[in-house]
Specification:
alpha+beta; Beta-Lactamase; 6 domains; five-stranded antiparallel beta sheet; 28 helices; elongated; Sig_transdc_His_kin-like_C; histidine kinase; transferase; EC 2.7.13.3; coiled coil
Length: about 850
């Protein structure tokens, strides 16, 4: 009966149905297990991918910060450098990828939303710290706050990073446990299913094979993530002794990051004990942490500096027990640690600079508050072509209110064309532009009318940063005093004529000597006294004995006698004597002083000038000293060192021209002609420079000079050029005045020569006329010390020039044409200006391009 039951078709049907049902049941369970296993693997992969993107994103933030701070340290403070913009772009891409990965995680998405806000704040803050002057030694409190803001943002970013990583690590642990459970059940169910239902093997194999491929792709993706992550990911398995104790760990998995950070090939080190490949785990006690974490099945964290292959590396490691081993995720934080160290050093430097800036700022503020000068800072306003068309007032001190009645707040951010429109018309605007374009200081005097009051200002403008700093000193009282002096001079003409050269320049140095002990610690000599002796400061010990070595041997006995008498009677000293300075020159000194305790304190004056030139007036001495300082070295070089080589060059040129000129090639002749022309130009240049430098050094007395005779002499000298050019010279009645004859001849010779050189080609004419004007009838801005002046006008109908160059042509070496167009040295009109000033007068030019020129010379009547 049993056998029949077994062989019964119904039983097979039942068994088939049961097998099919059971197969379906087991298959469904197995499929579910495999699907969940796949989902778990994908979840682990997804979690690791999220961690990778988090680390990538926050690493970019650190690189952004380091890049900007590096630029700041190098004084290369561009608003956004190329590398900084690259990091911004990378951070946006990584942020977007991370945002897509955490869309299904509300908590992480909330953190990431805040990170996005902090990212924008960080970029703004890092850009802000780069906005500062290119050349800066110190930083303001505002800039210091910007650095602090960057630090605060980075601190909060790191906090958000830790929150997100902790969340992902917790999720990774859960998913790995889930993954491990599915990894255990799935093969077992597949084996049961295969043994029970071999007849469905083909269908099961196809399903399993597909799932295997999916799993392989997931594992390949996971391996790819592991290879590209910035973290070092290793898996250790314990090595046990006979008693089952952990004595070491074997490396069973290592990603490619080991090769990058440690220089260790993963294929070589896998399978080896960590005590061999990572010896630092034994030296610093790290092994105990690993063993304890494995035994207790608890996570551990290590942060330390290790030495591997002679290289020091900072590592932060997360130790996680996983299955029968340890998963160790380490990150190389050496760069971050170095950045933090550099940042700390930078913070210290910035703190010191901040203190210095603060002290300097307080000092400058005190100076600005205490000064009586108007101090302003103007920033240029440019048009599309880059031309300065106006200035914006960025700063002015409180003194402006005492001058114009307007407070600084009313003027700041205004254009000078709005606040001071008269500056655009009286030439001051051009001075500001000149200071910006040349980078050289400009000083000038101008008069203004503020609130009905006529004021004079001496202004000094210097380029500062991209703008111009302007300091204006009110010299109205000085001008008023000058005017009063002029009026008094009119009444005391004879006295002023005697006294105008009576001022002398006092040369004084101070001393302190311990006469009794000659103690060098109690003795002192000022730098100026060293200079009077032609010595460098502190060139010798400042004792009295050392000073006496400079006293003239013939005057030493008298010096000692006067000094002994003063010591015995404890009275003040005041006597004169001669000294021989370091250059072996004899000078006359006067010593005055008094005794204080045991020390003699007083001053020593170089009275050589007073003794040698007592009849010279003070004003003439000041003028001669200034002229001598400017031209002393030049005259020596020009008179001897420059003229001699030029004479020799021209002599040899002449010899070559006489003997070998015809033997030269056409190119050689051309070069020879240029050499000859250049040497002659150099000779003329030296000649005119000497003339320019000797204008104030002439020993000729001012005498009565007839300008009619001067013009006749000039026409006689220029006779050949006058005939060659065909110019007609018309001379009006010219006066007789007090002047230096040869200087007057040179003045008119230069002006008339220029008029001939730049004269018109058709019917050239030169008209010379004269008109006597009172001082108040002359509108031109120069100091007028005399009641009336002669205005001598030289008018031509030549090529002319643009009026904007009217001041430039009177400067040394300034020419409006190339030397190939018109010959010349660029010194002639500068000489004319100096001659006019030497005679207490003034010279100016008025012209228009193509309409001729008028040169006006004002000379005292």
């Amino acid at each position: 009966m049993a056998k029949k039951l077994i062989l019964s078709p119904k039983l097979y049907v039942v068994l088939l149905i049961i097998a099919a049902a059971l197969l379906t049941f087991i298959g469904s369970i197995s499929y579910k297990q495999i699907s969940e296993f796949k989902q778990a693997a994908n979840s682990v992969t997804h979690t690791l991918e999220v961690e990778t993107e988090i680390n990538n994103l926050f690493a970019i933030y650190s690189q952004m910060e380091s890049a900007q701070l590096t630029n700041l340290l190098r004084k290369d403070t561009l608003v956004t450098s190329i590398s900084f913009q690259k990091y911004i772009d990378e951070s946006k891409g990584t942020f977007n990828r991370l945002n897509e990965l955490v869309l299904d995680k509300p908590i992480q998405h909330t953190h990431l939303t805040r990170v996005g806000e902090l990212q924008n704040n960080l970029v703004t803050a890092l850009k802000a710290i780069a906005i500062s002057p290119k050349v800066r030694l110190k930083y303001s409190a505002n800039e210091r706050n910007k650095l602090d803001e960057v630090s605060h943002i980075m601190a909060e970013l790191n906090q958000r990073k830790n929150f997100m990583l902790i969340k992902e690590e917790k999720l990774l642990k859960e998913r790995k446990e889930e993954f491990n459970s599915y990894a255990f059940l799935s093969p077992f169910m597949i084996l049961v299913l295969g043994a029970f239902a071999m007849f469905v093997f083909v269908l099961s194999f196809i399903k399993i094979n597909n799932e295997r491929k999916s799993r392989s792709r997931a594992e390949a993706f996971l391996a790819n993530v592991m290879a590209k992550t910035e973290n070092i990911v290793n898996f250790y398995e314990p090595i046990l002794n006979e008693d089952g104790e952990v004595i070491d760990f074997k490396l069973v998995y290592a990603n490619e990051r080991n090769k990058i950070d440690f220089g260790l090939d993963p294929e070589v080190i896998v399978g080896q004990p960590i005590s061999k490949i990572f010896p630092f785990t034994v030296l610093n006690g790290e092994y105990d942490v690993l063993a304890q974490s494995f035994i207790d099945k608890k996570e551990g964290i290590l942060s330390r500096q290790v030495l591997l292959n002679g290289k020091k590396i900072w590592l932060e490691s997360l130790i996680r027990p996983l299955n029968d081993g340890l998963l160790v995720i380490a990150k190389n934080t050496t760069h971050e640690k170095e950045s933090v160290a550099k940042l700390n050093t930078l913070n210290l430097e910035l703190q010191e600079q901040y203190e210095e800036i603060k002290e300097t700022d307080e000092f400058l503020q005190n100076v600005i508050r205490s000064t009586n000068n108007v101090i302003s800072y103007f920033e240029p306003i440019l048009d599309k072509e880059g031309t300065i068309i106006d200035f914006s007032i960025l700063y002015t001190n409180e003194e402006i209110k005492n001058t114009t009645g307007q407070s600084p707040d009313e003027l700041v951010q205004k254009k000078i064309s709005e606040a001071y429109p008269f500056l655009m018309e009286n030439g001051v605007f051009e001075f500001f532009v000149e200071a910006i374009l040349t980078g050289k200081p400009v000083e000038f005097e101008r008069d203004y009318i503020f609130n009905g009051v006529h004021m004079w200002f001496d202004t000094y403008a210097i380029k500062t940063g991209d703008g111009v700093c302007v300091t204006s000193k009110n010299i109205s009282k000085q001008k008023q005093d000058e005017q009063k002096i002029l009026e008094v001079n009119d009444q005391l003409k004879i006295q002023n004529a005697i006294l105008r050269d009576a001022k002398t320049l006092a040369k004084i140095g101070s001393y302190r000597w311990d006469i009794l002990s000659d103690d060098e610690d109690n003795s002192e000599i000022s730098d100026n006294l060293y200079s009077l002796l032609d010595c460098e400061p502190q060139e010798f010990l400042p004792t009295h004995e050392n000073y006496k070595k400079f006293i003239h041997p013939e005057d030493l006995a008298g010096y000692k006698k006067n000094l002994k008498e003063a010591i015995d009677k404890k009275k003040s000293v005041d006597f004169s004597y001669r000294i021989i300075n370091k250059s072996r020159k004899i000078k006359h000194f006067r010593t005055t002083g008094h005794f204080q305790d045991n020390a003699l304190i007083g001053v020593i004056q170089d009275i050589s000038t007073q003794i040698k030139d007592a009849l010279k007036l003070k004003e003439k001495n000041q003028e001669l000293k200034r002229s001598n300082e400017e031209l002393e070295s030049f005259n020596r070089v020009a008179s001897h060192d420059l003229q001699e080589p030029i004479r020799k060059i021209q002599m040899f040129i002449s010899r070559i021209e006489d003997s070998d000129y015809e033997n030269l090639s056409e190119k050689g002749k051309e070069f020879f002609t240029k050499i000859s022309s250049s040497s002659e130009r150099m000779r003329m240049l030296i000649k005119y420079l000497l003339s320019y430098s000797r204008i104030n050094k002439t020993k000729s007395e001012f005498t009565s000079v007839s300008l009619v005779e001067i013009i006749d002499k000039v026409q006689e000298d220029l006779e050949a050029r006058i005939k060659e050019s065909g110019v007609e010279i018309i001379v009006d009645n010219l006066p007789t005045l007090n002047a230096v004859p040869f200087q007057m001849e040179q003045l008119f010779n230069n002006i008339i020569s220029n008029a001939i050189k730049y004269g018109g080609k058709e019917d050239p004419k030169i008209i010379i006329d004269c008109k006597k004007l009172k001082r108040n009838e002359i509108p031109n801005n120069f100091i007028k010390k005399h009641k009336s002046y002669y205005r001598i006008s030289i008018i031509d109908n030549g090529i002319g020039f643009e009026q904007e160059h009217a001041d430039k042509i009177f400067e040394l070496f300034q020419r409006l044409h190339q030397k190939t167009e018109y010959s010349g040295t660029g010194i002639g009109l500068a000489i004319c200006k100096k001659i006019a000033q030497n005679h207490g007068g003034h010279i100016l030019a008025e012209s228009a391009l193509g309409k001729g020129s008028t040169f006006c010379v004002f000379l005292p009547a």
